[in-house]
Amino acid sequence: MAQRSVRSRRTLFERESELAAVEEALSELTGLRRDGSEAPERPRGALLAFAGRAGIGKTTLLAEVRRRAAAKGCTVLSARGGEQEQRVAFHVARQLLQPHLAGFSEAELRASLGSWYAIVGPALGLCAASEGAPPDQQGLRAGLDWVLTHLAVQRAPMVLVLDDAHWADPESLSWLAAFAPRAEELPLLLVVGYRPDELPDHAESFRVLPGRAGQRPVDLEPLSAAAVARLVREDLGAQADDAFCRECWAVTAGNPFEAVELTAKVRDRGLVPTEAGAHLLRELAAAVKGSGLIARLERLGTSTVRFAWACAVLGTEIPPPLAAAVAGLGSEEAADAADALRGARILTGADTLEFVHPLVATAVYRAIPGGVRVALHGQAAWCVINEGLGPSAAARHLMESHPDGDVWVVQQLRAAARETQRAGAPDAARRYLARALREPPPFEERAAVLYELGCASLLTEPATTVNHLRAALEEPITDPELRHNVVYRLSQVLAHSDRLAEASETLARESRMTADARVRLRMQSEQFMWDAFRADEPDSPARSRRLTRLADRLTGRDLTERYVIGLRAWDATLRGEPAHVALEHAERALAGGLGWAEADRGFEVPILVALTFMYADRPGRTEELFAAGIADFESQGWHGAHLSFGYTILAYVRYRRGRLAEAEDFVRAGLRLAERVGPGTPVHWYAVATLVEILLARGRVAEAARTAEEYAFGAPFPAAVTFPDAQIVYGQLLLARGLTKDAAAELAAAGRRLDPRGIRNPSWCPWQLHLARAESHDAPDRAVATALEAVQRARQYGAPSAIGQALRAAAEVSSGSTRVKLLEESVSHLERSPAAYELACALVALGTELRRSGRPKEAAEHLYRGLDAAVQCGADGLVEEARDELAAAGLRPRRLHSTETDTLTARERTAAVLTARGRTADQVAGELHTDEQSVVRLLSAVYRKVGTDRTGLAAALGEQPPA
User: Fold this and answer.
1) Which terminus of the chain has a smaller tally of CB atoms within 10 A, N or C?
2) Helix, strand, or coil here: 204?
3) Cβ(938)–Cβ(907) below 8 Å
4) Does residue 3 carry a pLDDT above 50?
5) Helix %, strand %, coil % for the chain, to 5?
């Protein structure tokens, strides 16, 4: 912009240390010193932040950063927050990225952005949003991360400059603040300027800088008297005497902007810069800002004032024709006004106008009389729509207008909300709809606006969503489909807020009122689903019987019928019916398709169907379904709760298969996503419970206990059913820590909660297996009875893994030859199952018992097999136990078998080597310029090809394992 180029050529006074920091960062970024010689270290990025009050020189300094970066051959991305544009979603992101992508054709954009096209394209204004569910905010940020990362790598070295960050829109600022710490991992220098007292809380990362940049931003100080004197003499000549210069410093308090404007005033007035005229400086300084500035503006004439007001309402990057239309001026009159404002140093620019400084823009805007300002915003909204800029561009102006029952205003705000919601900015959509509700809308449209408002608040304010949707149901709704959608959405948000009983009651009440059989069936299916997750369901067996009767007569002709059949498959699994019955219904549910990202449907039933295969010892099918489902989530840009559920439950599947290292990687990725969703949510319970169970299986009891304490994992447990059951996992943890009485009490309580509901499958709820172990210390007979009942339930279900696991538990609480027989049968069943970790446990236990029974040869065979299996699983504690038993038998453990590392791709090998050296998944992601989810997938491929886990990875790759 013109103003930036002018100010960038001005001498920067007393900014030597700031410029030195900039020069050092640019040298590290480009790999070149200031003299052109190569820097000793490889190029690397950084984050620099400059903080200071208004007029202190941030914009001038950032202009110099851009100039120096361009001179060194850097790609420069530049944006500026605007006081009037703060509530325009992705305004700053579009300034940064749109210029580098807007020239592409649609085909080129699709090729460049790949799967991110439909997710980030609408947010950046590159394409229209598609119909269907919008991306969640985490998914959109991940997409923006990807775009900026790839631009930084492809067009390196890159400098990103953000001025007036305190005025950046929340969506852009939250994204950049979260991305900022990654700058050091990329060929990217991120430079930010802001007013510290106005920086929002969600941009705290700019206050504490990572790495080389230091511990805090650079605070810009006012100029000294000597610096102001140099500035005055540069502008007015050497004849400016000391007394005049000192007075300039005194009246401006060393503020660079005010000092520059003051010297311009002196020059305009023809004032001689000597002590004789110094007494006039205070009056001139007052005209630079506030009421003095406004008085100066008013002297330019009514048309010019109105044009300035129109520009202040429009904000930054102002097209002159649009400003003329808002001001109600003809083109010639508007051109004269623009010339007058440029001459008065209020505006700058030609093709695009801008205020010379944000302080000037703020003063002009605040000087507009209230009623006139409202009218100008209304006029601006109409002009923006008339220019074809769309409802989203007009919405910020409509937000400033007074409610007046205008149907057109409601229409534009609803349209803007739809655009911003689909672009991934639900907070902005919620503001627009709340304003539309105050207009108010026509009586017959009120329910629809409330419904849309509820949908916009769904992910951020569930309690508010409930209120909006319930209010919508109280309105007279003439469209049955709208009423049904309100009910579905209300039940969904109630369920996801851990209010499952209310969700079920809402659907039951509404299903009795509808005369449409298909609608009633869908409501019944949704009610069945939420009841299946209720820990406090009053009559679960009766619900199971109703579900069985209904599912058996359905053919699966549409999605609703397939949901009911899928719920029947899961119910059979929970109740411990024969596994082949559950599998039969699961296959029926899948026969016509069961997508994970269906419009207006939850993903719960598809996940339950996939888990049915896992518990029935067909985890390969489960993983196929999960791979497709996670791909559905990612294609929709759902990187929050949806993807967290996907990764967490996939981790549980890997755990059940005995691939513990992979399981830990997946669950930690899921937990990171769950932490962004929020503590106490169902997805957070899933992730923490799964991580604790995996850590226990790996033998890291102390770490499991610390994890439970860190995340407050314990009573009270959620009202929703979780996988694995949180209370049972907590009982396992107590048992592993040696707190047997506490463990027995917790596990018995879990049994009292689950048994009356008919949930009797020990493969899903193994509370009896762990309770038997806890009881064996004080009540051995009762422990045996508990374990044998679990064996009976497992045999009824019929899955080999369930039977083998129950038999091993029964063996642990039995004695003598019975223990050996039970363990031998356990191994026999587990060998026919995919439960590798359970098999390893049974083999080590059997080998141990055979050694103690005086059968060393048989013991050695089982211990060696158990050791190898434990190593493959990553069960470090079990590995040590097996080695101890072999040592007690006078035997030495075998060396690990060689691995086929030559099958790894270059990218897989890099990820594997970094992991073997002790790097975390997010650190590996930084090295590979990708995201953590991609790293998890890479490592999963490595573990499969190498035939080991993280424990044996270093040895397999010839690496020294980390200390």
Assistant:
1) C
2) helix
3) yes
4) no
5) 70, 5, 30
Fill in the DSSP letter of residue 166: G
**pLDDT of the residue at 723:** 76
Mean pLDDT of 156-171: 93
Local structure of residue 40 (DSSP, 8 states) = S
pTM (2 d.p.): 0.74
The pLDDT of residue 783 is above 70: yes
What is the pLDDT averaged over residues 480-486? 91
Q: Is the previous residue joined to 134 through a cis bond, with omega within 30 degrees of 0?
A: no
Contact of 560 with 518, CB cutoff 8 Å: yes
Number of H helices, E strands in the chain: 48, 7
Cα distance between residue 929 and residue 39, in whole Å: 23
Mark residue 390 as left, alpha or beta (left: phi above 0; alpha: psi -120 to 50; beta: remaining). Answer: left
d(CA 868, CA 830): 15
Rounded to 5 degrees, what angle do the CA atoms 173, 176, 181 make?
135
Q: Look at the block and give the residue holding tokens 């672009």.
A: 423
Distances (CA, A) of 524 to 365, 466, 504, 528, 575: 56, 20, 9, 6, 20
Closest by Cα among 75, 56, 74, 49 to 177: 49
Write the DSSP assignment of 210-267 as a string of letters: -GGG-SSPEEPPPPPHHHHHHHHHHHH-TT--HHHHHHHHHHHTT-HHHHHHHHHHHH
HSE, side-chain direction, 13 A CA sphere, residue 47: 23
Structure tokens at 442: 């026509």
pLDDT for 932 beyond 80: no
Question: Can you say whether the dihedral through the CA atoms of 86, 89, 90, 95 is positive or negative?
Answer: negative
- Smallest CA-to-CA distance from 588 within 574, 570, 569, 605 is with 569
What angle, rounded to 10 degrees, do the helices at 836-852 and 800-812 form?
30
Gap between the terminal Cα atoms of the chain: 55
CB 761 within 8 A of CB 579: no
d(CA 938, CA 905): 10
CA–CA separation, 802 and 577 (whole Å): 13
Distance CA 259, CA 409 (A): 45
Mean pLDDT of 536-548: 86
Query: Nearest Cα to 542, choosing from 552, 531, 553?
Result: 531
Alpha-carbon span 736 to 731, nearest angstrom: 9
What one-character DSSP code corresponds to residue 680?
A: T
Pairwise CA distance, residues 367 & 494, whole Å: 47
DSSP 800-850: HHHHHHHHHHHHHT--HHHHHHHHHHHHHHHTTSS-HHHHHHHHHHHHHHH
d(CA 490, CA 497): 11
CA–CA separation, 319 vs 308, rounded Å? 13
Q: What angle do CA 864, 867, 873 make, to 5 degrees?
A: 145
Closest CA to 189 of 18, 52, 24, 9: 24
Single-letter code of the amino acid located at 359: L
**330/268: higher pLDDT:** 330
Contacts of 135 (CB under 8 A, 6+ apart): 119, 143, 424, 636, 637, 638, 639
At 641 the pLDDT is 64
Nearest to 306 by CA among 275, 328, 284: 328
- Residue 149 structure tokens: 């990362």
Predicted confidence (pLDDT) at residue 845 exceeds the cutoff of 90: yes
Q: Are 181 and 205 in contact (CB under 8 A)?
A: yes
User: Are the C-beta atoms of 644 and 936 separated by less than 8 Å?
Assistant: no
Distance, in Å, from the CA atom of 528 to the CA atom of 514, rounded to the nearest integer, reads 17
**Whether pLDDT at 49 is above 60:** yes
